[in-house]
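Dear support,

Our group has been running a series of protein-ligand predictions, and this particular one with pyrazine-2-carboxylic acid is the one our PI (initials K.S.) wants archived with full inputs and outputs. We had some confusion internally about which version of the output was final, so please treat the block below as the authoritative record. The input we submitted was:
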Amino acid sequence: MTALIIVDVQNDFCPGGALAVPEGDAVVPVINRIAALFDVVVASRDWHPKDTAHFKKWPVHCVRETKGAAFHPSLDDGKIQKIFYKGTGSKDDGYSAFEATNSDLAEYLRKKSVTDVYVAGLATDYCVKATALDARGHGFNTFVIEDACRAVDGKKAAALAATEMTKQGISTMTSQKILRSTNP
Ligand code: VGL
Ligand code: ZN
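Confirmed final output from the archive:
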C-alpha cells in the first residue's frame, strides 16, 4: 500500500505568509493532481503555541487556530484521511510529521499496511526532509516528489536536501513519473 504525506501546505508557508517559501503555492496544483493515486493520504500541520523556543529561530508562523496555520485555500483536502499536528510544544521544533502529538503517524501507516511513503509539501529543506528521513528510519520505502516540494532557502537548498536524503536511501521522484506509471 502507498501513502502520500502532504507536509505543511499552510498559508504562512506560501507567498504573502509569515514564513513564505519561494513558490510555495506552486506545490498545490501538483499535489491536487496526484493525491487520488495513493491508497492513503495524510497531511501534517505546523501547529505552534504563541510562545515557543521555535520562534527564536523563525518569524512567528503557523500559530494554532490562526489563518496562517490553515491549509492553502486551493489545496484539495477531500482526499486527506487524517491530519497530524506537530510543533505543538513550547520547547522543541517538531519538524517531522512523525513528531505529531495528536496521533502516531508511523503506527497509523503500519495499521493501513503501508510499505511505500511519498512525501510532498513545504519546506524541502526542513519539514519535508525531516519527515522523509523519519519515514526511512521507520523502514518505509521512501520517495520525495521533488516538483511537489519547495525549499524555504531556494533551489540550492532543495538540491542540497535532495543529496542528503538520497544518501540516506530515500528516492527522488517526479509527479510526471507517478502519473505515467499509474495511468499507462
Ligand atoms: C518549517 C521552518 C519552521 C517547515 C516549519 O514546515 O518546513 N520550516 N517551521
Ligand atoms: Zn514551524
